[in-house]
């Protein structure tokens, strides 16, 4: 009797079934990890845009306005406030210094909840004030992922920006609030 080398149909089906079970267990964790990476990346982009605005204000010796939308951030030098939802660069309300659209990063519209509509960064040591009498500092910008994880970016009067996440849903690499 010859000895046949190879796999039987039953062995192949068992391996395929095991791969299916492992994939079914791993998929929710993979989805959560991707959502967390997206929201963490978006929060880091927001902080980078804020530091950019602070640096530009000091470098140009002009005030810089940072405007917050529900899914975008806009930066413009000078005394005019910009609208980050405007994409036409010929419009006078276009954010000419920098425009950050979080939907490009895979963040859905409405996932950004700022406590202020805009801030002004002074060229004098990068001190921050609000452009509205009803807005107060310190301000926060909350970015929420589709799985409910929220990262809060705190903006204080002295120009310091920090990120933290709620203790109920910790995020690796981000300190708890």
Report on this structure:
- The chain has one domain (9-165): minor pseudopilin epsh domain (minor pseudopilin epsh fold, 3-Layer(bab) Sandwich).
- It is 29% helix and 24% strand.
- The chain is built from one helix and nine strands.
- It has one helix at residues 9-60; strands at 64-68, 72-77, 98-101, 112-114, 118-121, 128-130, 139-144, 150-155, 161-165.
- The protein has a five-stranded antiparallel β-sheet, covered by helices on one side.
- Strand 5 (118-121) and strand 6 (128-130) form a beta hairpin.
- The radius of gyration is 23 Å and the shape is elongated.
- InterPro entries: N_methyl_site, Pilin-like, T2SS_GspH.
- Residues 42-159 form the General secretion pathway GspH domain.
- It comes from Chitiniphilus eburneus.
User: What is the percent of helical residues?
Assistant: 25-40%
Query: So how many helices?
Result: 1
Beta-strand residue fraction: 15-25%
In the CATH scheme, the class would be Alpha Beta
Quickly count the domains: 1
Low-confidence blocks of residues: none
The string of secondary-structure elements, in order, is: HEEEEEEEEE
Shape: elongated
- The total beta strand count reads 9
> Could you please say which CATH topology applies here?
minor pseudopilin epsh fold
Structural class: alpha+beta
Order of adjacent strands in the largest pleated sheet: 3-2-1-5-6
Q: C-alpha Rg, in Å?
A: 23 Å
The description of the largest β-sheet is: 5 strands, antiparallel
CATH superfamily: minor pseudopilin epsh domain
Task: Give the end-to-end Cα distance, rounded to a whole number of Å.
Answer: 71 Å
Please identify, by name, the CATH architecture.
3-Layer(bab) Sandwich
Mean pLDDT, to the nearest integer, reads 85
